[in-house]
Amino acid sequence: MDTSNDSAAVLAGHLEANGVAVVWTDAAAVSVSHPLNSTVHEDVTADSGRYVTVYGYEVGQYGDEQETAHRVAYLVGADSGRESLPVDVELISATIRHALRLVSGRPDTHALTELEEELRGHVALLLPEVRESARSLWPNSIEAHRLQARLNGIERQTQRGLGQGLLSAQIQVHQLARDCQYLLARHTAETRR
Asked: Percentage of the chain with pLDDT > 70?
């Protein structure tokens, strides 16, 4: 009996209880999406006693499926009212610095691919938090509209991919690093309030 399959099934049950749409991608993985917008999704794999997103974030451990489901629901924007994943400011800052240094040189495509995945993961973690903090702004203010436009642009940028060729990949990683830097600055400013 494969425990990862059983754990993924238990997790899927808890995810459905949180009101998110769940699709089995294989026996040990599920694809979770917002109930009203299937483009907002997260793939979660059961592996070696833990649940991991496609970006490599550990969102929970076997035996803790209920809390894991709350975290994943939060990631896809189906607010479960529970605490979100902790933001590792040092790790995100280090990834940003590494990306900005790497794209100024002559990196290989493999390194850019790995960096893009890491940065997309950081953006996926930070974006919902910054969107939530933006709710405190007056809805019809210029500041609220500018912030919403910037956040929508960042979300679109994460969906572009590396494109064709080394230059395109360097530009994508550089832009993701700058977007991540912006989100991290907003997150840090909010936590200081």
From this structure: 88
